[in-house]
Amino acid sequence: MTEQNAAPQNGAEQQKKTVFSGVQPSGKLTLGNYLGALRNWPAMQEENRCIFSVVNLHSITVRQDPAALRRQTLEVLAQYIACGIDPEKSLLFIQSHVPAHAELAWVLNCYTMFGELSRMTQFKDKSQRYADNINAGLFTYPVLMASDILLYQTDLVPVGQDQKQHVEIARDIAQRFNGVYGPVFAIPEPLIQGPGAKIASLAEPTKKMSKSDQNQNAFVLLMDKPEDIMRKFKRAVTDSGSQVVRGEGKDGVNNLIAIYSAAAGCSPEQTEAEFAGKGYGEFKQAVGEAVVEVLRPVREQTERLLADKAYLEQVYAEGARQAARAAERTLEKVYKKVGFVKKPF
Ligand code: TRP
């Protein structure tokens, strides 16, 4: 953390970095979300000031079923906790509970250019995919994400590769604003974690694993039952070869080796050595079992937490209070800088 980036802190707190990340509650989390993101976050909370949000304001840029959105919001919150994020150590909250996100987003919209938003690859992709609903929110989505990050004087943003461009625009917006008004925002950096490559579809391994795939066997969900996981891996597409080694054009096997290594906590070389001389059938069975075992405690704990709504409510209520307090400090500075008359209450 550089002098200029430092949020006002004191004593031992000064060493701590602020980490912020968010997960959208639109749809179910996949094995890819878990291996690439959630699984790596609990370790960060020991050394840093961690803030994790269920970003439901982002979700409505695409049409949602209201009841499903409400249910999935609590499910993501429960999954955060089930993955090991401790509400006593990290700040956990639901984005729509903290109005400062929408408020800062409006201000930052006025410091973000049409041209730079037009270049965002996710906007280009989504406006193709949802061609009948290219709404303004979809276009300014990165500004809302920048607001999430900048409100908390964030230093580090753990995200998947696909969100790197959004963290970069958050940096650009922060630098632009600071350039005009002085050091208001810390300048965040992306932190890309997880298995080197993206987890691919089990059915068409040249494509990314996606929960919106028509083929249910293409993806594994965090909440899938063991028998479903086993079935999906049994059907996973491989190739006409027979050896469990990585290679050019062996997308299916490469993907399964990446998944096994991530799930079993070993290197791809170790995986190849372990399965030397064994066939694809046996290997797929082993990958399925490894994935079942990593996901089992998360699924079981999520189910227990979802049965305890009072506890979840207590977590998100306290989270909202603390997040609002921190966010208000930044928002107040911003409002003052741009020339708004101080709020009377
Ligand atoms: N756009 C992110 C995604 O779809 C979610 C997100 C919203 C986020 N706000 C954020 C991630 C702030 C990190 C920081 O994955």
Tag the structure with descriptive keywords.
single chain; 345 residues; 5 strands; mainly alpha; 13 helices; two-stranded parallel ribbon
Q: What's the short story on this structure?
A:
The chain is mainly α and 345 residues long.
Give an overview in words.
The chain has helices at residues 31-36, 56-59, 66-82, 100-109, 114-118, 121-129, 136-151, 164-181, 226-234, 251-264, 268-274, 280-306, 309-338, and strands at 18-23, 49-54, 91-94, 156-159, 189-192. The chain is mainly α. The strands form 2 sheets. The protein has a 3-stranded parallel β-sheet. Strands 4-5 form a two-stranded parallel sheet. The chain is globular. Mean pLDDT is 93; it is low at 1-9. Tryptophan binds next to strand 1, helix 7 and strand 4.
Q: What is the fold's blueprint, element by element?
A:
Layout: E1 18-23, H1 31-36, E2 49-54, H2 56-59, H3 66-82, E3 91-94, H4 100-109, H5 114-118, H6 121-129, H7 136-151, E4 156-159, H8 164-181, E5 189-192, H9 226-234, H10 251-264, H11 268-274, H12 280-306, H13 309-338
Parallel strand pairs: 1-2, 2-3, 4-5
Helix pairs in contact: 3-12, 4-7, 4-13, 7-8, 9-12, 10-11, 10-12
Bound molecules: tryptophan.
Residues 20-22, 24, 55, 58, 145, 148-149, 157, 159, 163, 166 line the site of tryptophan.
| Approximate helicity band | 40-55%
Note poorly predicted spans.
Answer: 1-9
User: Per DSSP, what share of the residues sits in E-state strands of 2 or more residues?
Assistant: 5-15%
The count of strands amounts to 5
The description of the largest β-sheet is: 3 strands, parallel
Bound molecules: tryptophan
Count of individual helical segments: 13
Tell me the radius of gyration: 21 Å
